[in-house]
Amino acid sequence: MPAETTNQQSILDLAEAMRNLDGDAELLQEIVEIFMETAELQIQSLTDAIRDGNVQKVAIEAHAMKGGASNLCAGEFVVAALALELHAKSGSLDGAWELLETLVATLKDLRDVIGFINWAELAQG
Question: What is the pTM of this model?
Answer without folding.
Answer: 0.90
